[in-house]
Design goal:
The chain is mostly beta strands. The longest helix has 23 residues. The radius of gyration is 27 Å and the shape is elongated. The N and C termini lie far apart (92 Å).
Length: 540
C-alpha cells in the first residue's frame, strides 16, 4: 500500500512538472502589454512575445480572445505563432507601421529590401503560423490613392518568408490581403496544410475583372525558388493567380514540390507554373484538385524568362467555368530579368504529363493551347484521359485566321485571342501525345477540334470529338511531320476527318480510324500532297 502511495505521488509530481514545463513554452502577448481591442496598435507587444520566445529557445506565441492590430512582426527561429479560433491578427491602417528594411535577399525588383508585409521572416529555421484564427490583411484600406494597382510593392502582403527552412503554415485563414497573400522566396522544407485564403476583390466572376474595385495582385500562394514543398488540403479564393510557382533568380530553382487536394477559384489562373521564370522549375507533382470560377486558365505551365521547366506531373484535376484556357502550355521569350547583370538561361519546356482532367463550361474563345516559338519547341508532352466540354459558338471563318506570335507578351491563355480550334491549338511542338481525349461543345462550333501547326512526332490516339457539318474538318495538320492518328473519330457528322496543309507536311499515318461520320477521310491543301501520307489503314 505504501509503495502504491509513493508511486501515485511520484506520478502527480511528474505530471505537474510536465504541465509547468509545457506552460513555460507559451508566450502571451497580453503579458507584454497587448490590448487585443481592435483599436490599439499591438505590434510591439506581439514582437516582444516573439523575441522572448526566441531567446528562451523556442515555443508558442499565443493570440486568443481579441482583434490584434499590428504592423510588421518578425518571426524568429523556433517560434510558432498560434492564432486561436476567435482571434484575429489585423494589419494596421498606417503604412509607416510596415517599414522597408535592408535584406540580404533581392526583391522582385532586384533591390535588397524587405518590401512590406504583416508577418516577415528571413533566414530563420523552424517557424510556424498555425491555428483556426484569422489573419486579416486589411486590404480594402489600400485600394485607392498611391497604393492602387499596379504599385503592389507599396502594399503589405500578409506572409513573406525569405531564405527560411522548416516552415509550417497550417489551418489558418488568410483574409483580405493588400497584395500577394503569402509568398515564400528561396525557402526549403515547407508544409502548407489546411489553410483558407479568402482574398478576392471583384468576387462576381461574370462581371469584368475590375468591375467594382481596382485589383490588388492578391495571388493566393506564391513560391519563388523554393524546394521541398508540400501543399495540401487548402481552399484558395484569390483576386489573382491561385497557386503559382515562380523563379526570380537564374541560378536558383523551384523544385521537389507537391500540391494535393486543393480547391481553387481565382480572378486569374488557378494552378500556375510560371509568370516570373528565370531559374529552373522541375520535379513538380500536382494532383486531386478542383479549379472553378476562374477568369484566366485552369492549368498553366509557362517559361518566358529563360526558365528550364521539366518533369511536371499533373493529374486528377476537375475544372468548371473557366474563362480562359483549360490547359495552357507556353514557351516564350519575354526574357525579363529580376536581378542586376543577370544572365538569361536558354529555356526549355519538356517532359510534362497531364492526365485525368475533366472540365465543363470552358471558354468558347481559348480552348487549350500548347505553344513554343520558332526553333524552340515545347517537347515531350503527354495528355491522357482528358474530358472537356467547351461553350462553343465559333464560326468556320475563324479557323483560318492568323494566330499572332506574341513571343514577348505577358504569358496567359488570352494572349493569342480567339483561337482557330475550339479544343486544342498546338504550335511549335515536338513529341506530343494526345491519348483518350474527349471534346464536346455546349453550342455548335464550326471550328476544327484540333489544329497542329509545325508539330513533329505527333500521336493522336482514341480521340472522340464533336464537330459541325459546317466545320472545314475535325483535325487540321499544318506543316507537321511524323504524325500518327489512330482509333479516333468524329462524334457527329463532319465534311472532312483530316486536312493536311503545307508542303512541309510529311510522314502522316492514319490507322484504324472509323470514318462513319466523315464524308471525306482526308484532303490536301496549300502545297500538301498525297506523298505526305505514307500509310493508311481503314477500320473495317
Amino acid at each position: 500500500m505504501r509503495n502504491l502511495f509513493l508511486f501515485s505521488f511520484l506520478m502527480v509530481i511528474i505530471a505537474i512538472s510536465g504541465f509547468a514545463q509545457g506552460g513555460s513554452d507559451i508566450y502571451d502577448p497580453f503579458d507584454y502589454g497587448a490590448k487585443g481591442n481592435g483599436i490599439t496598435l499591438d505590434t510591439e507587444a506581439i514582437q516582444a512575445a516573439i523575441d522572448s520566445c526566441h531567446h528562451a529557445g523556442g515555443g508558442k506565441v499565443y493570440l486568443y480572445k481579441g482583434v490584434f492590430i499590428s504592423g510588421t512582426i518578425i518571426l524568429k527561429n523556433n517560434v510558432t505563432l498560434y492564432i486561436e479560433a476567435g482571434a484575429t491578427l489585423k494589419g494596421s491602417n498606417n503604412l509607416e507601421d510596415f517599414p522597408t528594411k535592408h535584406s540580404k535577399h533581392p526583391s522582385y525588383e532586384g533591390n535588397f529590401e524587405t518590401n512590406k508585409m504583416l508577418i516577415y521572416s528571413e533566414d530563420a529555421k523552424n517557424i510556424s503560423v498555425i491555428g483556426r484564427g484569422i489573419i486579416d490583411g486589411n486590404g480594402d484600406h489600400w485600394v485607392d490613392g498611391p497604393y492602387g494597382f499596379p504599385s503592389f510593392s507599396k502594399r503589405p502582403r500578409i506572409i513573406h518568408f525569405r531564405g527560411c527552412e522548416n516552415i509550417v503554415v497550417r489551418d489558418i485563414t488568410l483574409y483580405n490581403s493588400a497584395s500577394w497573400v503569402q509568398s515564400y522566396q528561396s525557402c526549403n522544407n515547407i508544409v502548407i496544410e489546411g489553410i483558407t485564403v479568402d482574398s478576392r476583390e471583384n468576387k462576381d466572376i461574370e462581371k469584368p475583372r475590375f468591375a467594382d474595385v481596382p485589383g490588388r495582385n492578391t495571388d493566393g500562394l506564391d513560391l519563388e525558388d523554393c524546394q521541398q514543398v508540400r501543399i495540401s488540403n487548402c481552399f484558395i479564393n484569390s483576386g489573382d493567380d491561385g497557386i503559382c510557382i515562380k523563379s526570380f533568380s537564374p541560378n536558383e530553382a523551384s523544385r521537389d514540390i507537391t500540391i494535393t487536394n486543393c480547391i481553387i477559384s481565382t480572378n486569374a489562373s488557378g494552378i500556375k507554373i510560371g509568370t516570373e521564370t528565370a531559374g529552373k522549375i522541375e520535379d513538380i507533382t500536382i494532383q486531386n484538385c478542383v479549379v472553378y470560377d476562374t477568369r484566366v486558365d485552369a492549368i498553366s505551365i509557362i517559361t518566358v524568362d529563360g526558365s528550364q521547366i521539366e518533369r511536371i506531373n499533373i493529374s486528377g484535376i476537375t475544372c468548371r467555368n473557366i474563362k480562359g484556357s483549360a490547359i495552357f502550355i507556353r514557351l516564350g521569350n519575354r526574357f525579363r530579368t529580376y536581378r542586376e547583370n543577370a544572365e538569361i538561361n536558354n529555356p526549355h519546356l519538356k517532359d510534362v504529363i497531364i492526365e485525368n482532367i475533366q472540365g465543363t463550361r470552358i471558354s468558347e474563345k481559348y480552348g487549350c493551347i500548347i505553344a513554343g516559338i520558332k526553333n524552340i519547341p515545347v517537347e515531350n508532352i503527354v495528355l491522357r484521359n482528358i474530358n472537356l466540354e467547351f461553350e462553343g459558338g465559333g464560326h468556320a471563318e475563324q479557323s483560318y485566321q492568323d494566330v499572332p506570335q506574341r513571343e514577348g507578351a505577358y504569358p496567359n491563355g488570352l494572349i493569342f485571342g480567339d483561337l482557330p480550334a475550339y479544343g486544342f491549338y498546338i504550335r511549335y511542338a515536338k513529341n506530343i501525345i494526345l491519348d483518350n481525349i474527349q471534346l464536346r461543345v455546349t453550342n455548335e462550333d464550326e471550328r476544327p477540334a484540333i489544329i497542329c501547326d509545325e508539330v513533329e512526332q505527333l500521336e493522336i490516339i482514341r480521340l472522340k470529338a464533336e464537330a459541325s457539318s459546317n466545320s472545314p474538318e475535325l483535325i487540321r495538320l499544318i506543316n507537321s511531320k511524323n504524325a500518327i492518328i489512330s482509333q479516333s473519330r468524329s462524334a457527329s457528322p463532319v465534311p472532312v476527318f483530316l486536312s493536311i496543309y503545307g508542303r512541309n507536311s510529311a510522314e502522316i499515318i492514319l490507322q484504324n480510324n472509323p470514318f462513319s461520320n466523315a464524308i471525306t477521310m482526308y484532303i490536301f491543301k496549300d502545297g500538301a500532297s498525297k506523298q505526305s501520307m505514307i500509310s493508311e489503314r481503314r477500320l473495317k
